[in-house]
Amino acid sequence: MTEQNEPAHKEISMNNGRSIPALGFGTLIPDLADTLRATKSALQAGFRQFDCSERYRNEQAVGEAIQAVLQEGKVRRDDLFIATKLWNNNHRPERVKPAFEASLARLRLDYVDLYLMHTPFAFRPGDDQDPQDENGKTLYDDGVTLSETWAAMERLVDEGKCRAIGLSDVDLAQVTEINRSARIRPAVVHVEAHPYLPQWELLEACKQGGMVFQAFAVLGHSFEPRLLEDEVIKKIAAAVGKTAAQVCIAWALQRGTAILTTSTNPDHIRESLDVSPLPEGAMEAIKGITTRYRFNKVVETGLPGFIPREADRKRAAAE
Fold first, then answer.
1. Angle in degrees, 0-180, between the axes of helices 32-45 and 266-273, rounded to the nearest 10
2. Which of these is catalytic: 56, 111, 140, 293?
3. Residue 58: which H helix or E strand, with range?
4. Could you give the angle at the alpha carbon of 249 between the alpha carbons of 238 and 69, nearest 5°?
5. For the chain, is the Cβ count within 10 Å smaller at the N or the C terminus?
6. CA dihedral defined by 203, 207, 211, 213, rounded to 10 degrees?
């Protein structure tokens, strides 16, 4: 895989002959008006990769923002890399294409550059994204395999409206399972990764297998342990004249991963693009951080959400 040198403008080659901008904007934003404003701000600031999902329930707002900027004539569709995801209730092969086409319609696009399986967990098929029994227990679907869902996604690539497919919220065993049976191998593996969860083994497996490793939550989260308040990160930030967030972004890009960052603040959006390479000593210092924490437990159950520790819940309740 080839890469450009400037961190903010780096592109990483995928195994389908195309490339993905290494720095992308995530659209997991609950409010639709905020989604519209933030997506426009990101486009205007220079972001060209956007990560979406039917699960986020805001694809229509993202599509509206994209169309508004395209109509200004300053950005072309070919300049953009748009990804979206298949949610768990649509894993049955016969549901994959209708779900994909519904996302295309909401995004107001003729094609997407990447379609990800949002999680490897299949939920009971139907219109309910979170099917539960009378006791509130998630209803899974044991009538479909990971490989069957993947094969249906491969057919989307054959039809031309999806240029690449990939996996999200998976572990190394699941990536290996898909690679054994895949006709079209995953182009991207999209997982939580940051200095508290570096995922070195999975990153190396992706590099060896020609798959792009894409990280979300690169800045950690607002609950503890707070990555941006880590003493190692803060010390490096002071030394290089950047913010802690910019240091985490630079670290992620410099170790060869594509990343996603999200904000509704235009200043923070622009700040994310203003990153510089870190000295080797800084990279080694971050690698030496021993704190380990996964902020999002979706890989364990398929249920989305950043789940704070009990201490964070109690503090939030007191505030």
1. 40
2. 56
3. none
4. 125
5. C
6. 30
Give the amino acid at 235: K
- d(CA 261, CA 50) in angstroms, rounded, equals 10
Q: What span, in angstroms and rounded, lies between the C-alpha atoms of 7 and 241?
A: 16
The verdict on whether 56 is a catalytic residue reads yes
Whether the pLDDT of residue 305 is over 80: the answer is no
The Cα–Cα gap between 263 and 152 comes to 33
Q: Are 309 and 241 contacting, i.e. CB atoms less than 8 angstroms apart?
A: no
State how far the alpha carbon of 193 is from the alpha carbons of 7, 40, 88, in Å: 17, 26, 22
Element spanning 191, H or E: strand 188-192
How far from 121 is each of 143, 243, 245, 247, CA to CA, in Å? Answer: 12, 37, 32, 34
What pLDDT, on a 0 to 100 scale, did the predictor assign at position 9? 79
User: Which one-letter amino acid corresponds to residue 29?
Assistant: I
Residue in the structure block whose two tokens are 């290494």: 22
Nearest Cα to 51, choosing from 62, 40, 37, 64?
A: 62
pLDDT tens digits, 116-129: 999 999 999 999 99
Q: Using N-to-C axis directions, what is the helix angle for 244-254 and 231-240, rounded to 10°?
A: 90
Tracing tokens 């869902």 back to the chain, one arrives at 149
Percentage of the chain surpassing pLDDT 90?
Answer: 90
Rounded to the nearest angstrom, the gap between the alpha carbon of residue 258 and the centroid of all alpha carbons in its chain is: 9
Name 188's bridge partners: 166, 212
Identify the residue whose tokens are 């409206």: 161
| Cα 136 to Cα 181: distance, rounded to the nearest angstrom | 34
What tokens does 14 get? 């995928």
Quick check: 141 and 192 in contact, CB under 8 A?
no
Alpha helices of 46-135 — where are they, by DSSP H? 59-71, 93-107
Q: What residues does 260 pair with on adjacent strands?
A: 24
Residue indicated by tokens 């549901």: 95
Q: Which of 21, 24, 18 is nearest to 9 (CA)?
A: 21
